[in-house]
Design brief:
The complex is a heterodimer.
Chain A lengths: L2 H6 L1 H10 L4 H18 L8 H19 L18 H15 L6 H12 L4 H7 L4 H15 L10 H14 L7 H15 L3 H20 L19 H15 L6 H14 L8 H15 L2 H15 L1 H9 L8 H11 L3 H14 L3 H19 L1
Chain B lengths: L1 E10 L15 H20 L3 E6 L6 E3 L8 E3 L8 E10 L2 H12 L14 E4 L10
Antiparallel strand pairs in B: 1-5, 1-6, 2-5, 3-4
The chains are: A mainly alpha, B alpha+beta.
Chain lengths: 381, 135
């Protein structure tokens, strides 16, 4: 049984139940139950029409739940057998689900969890494993999120930017249990891009594809990080790069730049360089200038300082860095790197050790500690 | 989301406001204290923020390797150990502010005379997974 295929039809099935009069929370519960049954029954008895099977079973689950809960207010149910929705309606249903699950009234963590369940079709257990929390906790997080959005009208379009933010978070947090969330984020963004005509959706998809392409090269077998400059570029996935560049170029051609397109442009320039030395840092600085102009983000300013250091030399990089808040995450690590390139290894060793103490993830801390150790060993000999 | 460890100490934390050893409380006060901790954990599960909570016996020991082929060396427990952890709770929250807010609530568990202990809890962020996008 192809689980990805099964999950891909989940938003459609939720949409069908919605059209028949089920509210979002009840429809979503019923579809989850139908999924559990599908996983149990299909391997021995695969249905000819998987989506039709899911609709039938989910609808039955929904009716069972309504009947079982007679104390609930009476629902007005439409007729059982409505005609199947046409392709345009399926797109609308699915899009509405993206908006609903990323509704601004939800905290980022709740929006992520709800999106993975209702749009992604993942089980609560899979989401809990991915985020390293108990299943009961994740179940409560999802159930509260559903309650929060229950007053939102199902048929109103929301803000695409919040949807993109949620998908970006799923991709960027990079946790994984038995589901690879990076792959899942790409799938959901690809599906969104196919339903919308928006440059920033395309920009985010391109960004994800270009970074996914580098994944085989970015960690060693022991889990330690390989910096971009040290990566074996032969391991990069050229197919993903080609697709990412195509998607990005089509978006940029429409001349409505946004932050995801700018970030993807930086990633595309890295992908374009056969060796680290061939990287077009001058152009990368220009894209960071755009990104700073678009977002004013301190992280973009910090990355710009790194790029300036490569384009115009470490002194220029340090000058750019001096204009920023030194307490920014990773500012000390950047300073250490630039000082080493400037030849000040004593300062660099001290700053790497300081940066390691301030690191917020384990591979980053280990990498910075190793840098400090390497410099200190060199200084002793 | 970010995970934080809330550490409760038998010894080693600065003195609590309501600083009476637990064995001088009434049995009802002890029961009320544990009930508060349990209710707190249940409530956090309800908000989708609870990860784990455990209590530790004060009766530990030190262990170290003594070289290949030899059994490990044990020592202690040391009555004078300065820092003795009593237990922990792991929470998964949206922000540092929320972690501080929850630690504050946990610190207000009732103690002697049914008054809040206002004990000092140690709050430590976890090192997470690396982001996919770093440039």
């Amino acid at each position: 049984m192809d689980e990805a295929l099964l999950r891909a039809v989940v938003p459609t099935v939720i949409g069908v139940l919605g059209r028949r009069g089920a509210d979002f929370a009840a429809a979503e519960d019923a579809v989850q139950e139908a999924l559990v049954e599908a996983v149990r029954v299909w391997p021995a008895d695969p249905p000819r029409d998987p989506q039709g099977w899911l609709v039938t079973v989910a609808w039955r689950k929904f009716l069972d739940a309504v009947r079982a809960d007679s104390s609930r207010r009476r629902r007005e149910l439409r007729v059982d057998e409505e005609p199947a929705p046409g392709p345009a309606e399926v797109v609308d249903d699915t899009l509405r689900l993206y908006f609903l699950c990323a509704h601004p009234s939800l905290s980022p963590a709740s929006a992520v969890a709800l999106t993975l369940r209702a749009v992604g079709g993942l089980t609560t257990r899979q989401i809990a494993q991915a985020y390293l929390v108990p299943e009961a906790t994740m179940a409560q997080r999802i159930s509260r999120a559903k309650k929060t959005v229950s007053g939102v009208r199902f048929d109103r379009h929301g803000d695409l930017a919040t949807v993109l933010r949620v998908l970006y978070l799923v991709f960027n947090e990079g946790y994984s249990g038995d589901v690879d969330l990076v792959v899942e984020a790409v799938r959901l963004t690809r599906q969104l891009a196919a339903m919308t005509d928006d440059e920033e959706v395309a920009g985010l998809l391109a960004l994800m594809l270009l970074h996914s392409a580098r994944r085989p090269a970015r960690t060693r077998a022991d889990g330690s990080l390989v910096t971009l400059a040290e990566q074996d570029r032969r391991l990069w996935d050229t197919r993903l790069i080609a697709e990412g560049v195509d998607v990005l170029q089509a978006a940029l051609a429409r001349d409505r730049l946004g932050e995801y397109q700018a970030q993807a442009a930086v990633a595309a320039l890295h992908a374009d360089a056969r060796t680290a030395e061939e990287t077009d840092w001058v152009q990368i600085v220009e894209w960071y200038d755009e990104l700073v102009r678009l977002t004013g983000s301190p992280v973009a300013r910090l990355n710009r300082a790194v790029a300036v250091g490569e384009a115009d030399g470490p002194r220029a990089g340090l000058a750019a860095l001096a204009e920023l808040d030194p307490t920014l995450p990773r500012a000390t690590a950047v300073s250490a790197y630039l000082h080493e390139r400037d030849g000040d290894r004593v300062m660099a060793a001290r700053l790497y050790a300081e940066a390691a103490r301030a690191a917020t993830d384990l591979p980053e801390r280990d990498h910075l500690t190793r840098q400090a150790a390497r410099l200190n060993a060199g200084l002793r000999s | 989301m970010a995970k934080y460890l809330l550490l409760k100490h038998y010894r080693g934390a600065p003195a609590a406001v309501n600083d009476v050893p637990m064995d001088r409380w009434t049995p009802e006060e002890v029961t009320a204290h544990f009930q508060y901790m349990q209710d707190f954990a249940d409530r956090l599960e309800g908000t989708g923020e609870f990860v784990d909570g455990q209590a530790l016996s004060p009766d530990g020991m030190w262990v170290r390797s003594d070289g290949q082929g030899k059994p490990p060396v044990t020592d202690g427990p040391f009555a004078e150990t300065k820092d003795l952890i009593a237990g922990w709770m792991i929470i998964d929250v949206d922000s540092r502010e929320r972690a501080i807010e929850l630690a504050g609530e946990l610190s207000a568990a009732p103690g002697a005379n049914g008054e809040p202990i206002h004990e000092w809890l140690e709050v430590r962020p976890f090192l997470g997974a690396p982001p996919t996008i770093t440039e």
